[in-house]
Amino acid sequence: MYEKQKLYKLFKDGDREHALYVRYQIARRTVPNPESPICSAQVALLRNKGLPFPFIASYLGVHRTAVLHQKKKQAYKDTYRVREYNKNRKELELLGG
Q: Is 0.70 surpassed by the pTM of this model?
């Protein structure tokens, strides 16, 4: 939470260069190897640190739509859980309310 507030304050004060440097440092600590294949967990971790989607896409070296696709996939996984009764039948169960 502290890092989110620090980033917000840096951008608000107009110190853009330092804010971008702090963003990069946060990203390096969170996902140290951006060359690994993109997954929704990486996107969620970086997003929880307060980093915007365009920055996450450039850091991971992918197009912005790939990051948004991972976001949608993670949201789908968070909303639905697959229950397997047997190998041929799956049912989606809505989590929460």
A: no
